[in-house]
Structures are given as structure tokens and as C-alpha cells.
Amino acid sequence: MLTFACPEKLGVVHSITEVLVQQRQEIIDLKQFGDRNSQRFFLRVHFACEGGSAVSTQALREAFAPLAEQYRAELTVEPKGRKRRVLLMVSKSEHCLNDLMFRARVGELPIEVVAVVSNHDDHRDLVEWHGIPYHHIPVTPATKPQAEAELLKLRERYDVELVVLARYMQVLSSRLVEDMAGEVINIHHSFLPSFKGARPYHQAYEKGVKTVGATAHYVNAELDEGPIIAQQVVEVDHTFDAADLAAAGRDTERKALANAVKWHCEGRVFLNGNRTVVLKQARRSAPGRAERPNQASMTTAVISGALR
Known about the structure:
- By secondary structure, this protein is α/β, with parallel strands linked by helices.
- The protein folds into two domains: 104 residues, Alpha-Beta Plaits (2-Layer Sandwich); 182 residues, Rossmann fold (3-Layer(aba) Sandwich), CATH 3.40.50.170.
- Helix content is 31%, strand content 28%.
- The strands form three sheets. Strands 7-6-5-8-9-10-11 form a seven-stranded mixed β-sheet. Strands 1, 2, 3, 4 and 14 form a five-stranded antiparallel β-sheet that branches. It has a two-stranded antiparallel ribbon with strand order 12-13.
- Strand 2 and strand 3 form a beta hairpin.
- Helix 3 runs parallel beside helix 8 and helix 7 packs across helix 8.
């Protein structure tokens, strides 16, 4: 997988595809988006070695490095399907935690859940049944600095690449968020920007909404203000009280968070100021339509940059 992000500039796509040809790589899928407002260009390429020959990941990184310097780009090259090392954090509600562990277990998400952290001890049996280490770190206003220091130690110990707040109800400090910028995804149980903060389903009930939803977003220093990655909604009506809204919303929370984690770990999400660009996978062909080529053994390249 290759990602490339840079300011818009004429000739970037040509330069990248030229390197792929030189490395005898066949393009399987290419998606791109140019944002005329931010003057940024984002591109994702899925490619495979021609004729089954192999080129090492390091060799590809070295081949693309001059382009990264030339176009002032953010570049990564990774093998397709590499599992990201993910740490989950949870408080009392376990539905998102359980969903992510199940999806990881059956191979639906390209992640390895290396540990779970909670400020309660409620979910230890569930997590340890999955064979995942469980760390109970209580948090009070007085102990928050020590708790966050312990979290950072666990992050280093497990070589964590992504932290997922799966209904973790403690607010992270600005210092911690800045240290892990772009590496923390949260699920908020409302369709942001509506109903920020605590008890969003109760807020929604008071407003008499006819739709509730959930939002998965990167965490920044402002509460529930980080760049949005994925959202899901479900219709409700006047018969729903706050508890009914919360029950209806749980499925949207699970799906939005799973999508966000999947897209992030597949290299499909690019930060673009306080927004994101998500280059989603093409929908599978409907019955009766031609099937797309099998991509299971191919390499993915993600290039986010200025490619005009």
C-alpha cells in the first residue's frame, strides 16, 4: 500500500505512474480527489507486480522517495493487508468494543487488537475470552495525569499504531491528543455537529428528532470537533423515548466506528485541514454484472498528494 499526500501540482499522477511502470507494477485500481479549496490532491493506487514477480516494500519506498521530496509529499508504502496494531479503550458500554473484537477475530478488519484499556473492570472476562490483554486504569480528576502516563507506557509497550475510543467516556487531555494526533478515533453517539457532549440521545429526545445517528471522527483538542471519518443514521419517530433512541443508535455506532477503523487502516482516509478525504472501495458488482478481478493477493498503493 502506498499513500502520497502533497499540494496540487501539474504532473504528479504522471510521475507516480511512471515509477510504477519502472518497477514493473500493474495498476489494479486508482482513486483520486483534488480539493480546489485547500489546493491538495489525494490519490490511492492498488497495484500488483507484473507476472507475479516480487519487489520488496523497501525497494518501492526508495523508488518513490525522490517524488516525495520533489512534491513535498507525505508518503507511505505498505504491503496490502498488513494488520495495524490497535489499542481499544472503553468505559461501561461494551457494544462497540464487542463488535470490533468480533470483526477483528473473523478477519473483517485489517487490525490486531493488542490490548484493551478501561476505566472500569466490567469487561475483563469478555476481552480475555478473546485472548486480549485487559488493563484497568481508573481515572479521577486527581489521578488523570498518572492514568494518561500509564496509557502512554502501554502505547509504547504494545507498539500501538491506532487508539480507538470505543465508547470511552473520559475526555483526553490536550497534551495527550496532540501527542497522538491523527492516531486516535472516537465514536460519538450523535450525528455531529448536532448534540455534542454528554447525553446526546436525551438532547435528541428533547428536540423531537426523526433521525438519530453516530459519528466516528479523529480526536483533537476540542470536544467532538475532530475531522469526521464516517457517519450512520437511522429513522425514528415520536414514539421513541430517550432509551429507545439509545437502543436504535447502537447499531449506527457500531457500523460507523467499524467503517472508520477499516478505512483508516486500509489507507483510505486523508486529513485535509479539519476535514477528511475518504477514498472508498468500489462497490461490488450487482448480480448479473461482470465481476471485478480478484484482488486478494495484490498490493495496495495509496497516494495522497497534488497530482494534476
